[in-house]
Design goal:
The chain has 126 residues and is α+β, with helices and mostly antiparallel strands. It has 1 helix and 8 strands; from the N terminus they run αββββββββ. The protein has a domain of 71 residues. The protein has an 8-stranded antiparallel beta sheet with strand order 5-4-6-1-2-3-7-8, with no helix packed on it. The termini are far apart.
Length: 126
């Protein structure tokens, strides 16, 4: 049982680490250099921040080297939306809570158990 809890902890920890270093890919629709925002064809928007990186053709490229129509991989950039004339950072998604699973000697049945005594009679349609 202890090894199951350890395995779940390791799995969840790996998932959280992967989510924090996630990358996203798409084709560039337009670039907003003053705001350092890249807009992809599907509408997703990313602001280049410290630590952000971009790759095209599996090679690193600077923000200034990005061009519309180019397929790009965006890493560690800040997801944003455009509202009322400005870019707004999307709230960070909270990592999943750590889950501990324990075995129970007594089975737990979901919800109340209802039964009707005796045989069931056919319903009459009036």
């Amino acid at each position: 049982m202890r090894s199951l809890a350890l395995a779940l902890t390791l799995t969840l920890g790996t998932t959280v680490a992967a989510a924090q270093s996630a990358s996203d890919a798409g084709t560039i629709l337009r670039i907003d250099p003053p705001s350092r925002v890249v807009v992809l064809e599907d509408g997703r928007m990313y602001r280049a921040v410290a630590g952000s990186s971009f790759r095209t053709d599996d090679r690193p490229v600077t923000f200034a080297g990005l061009r519309p129509g180019t397929r790009v991989v965006v890493e560690s950039a800040e997801p944003v939306i455009y509202r009322q004339g400005r870019y707004i950072a999307l709230p960070a998604v909270a990592p999943p809570a750590e889950v501990a699973i324990t075995a129970s000697a007594t089975p737990v049945l979901p919800g109340p158990q209802h039964s009707v005594p005796g045989p069931l009679a056919p319903l009459s349609h009036r």
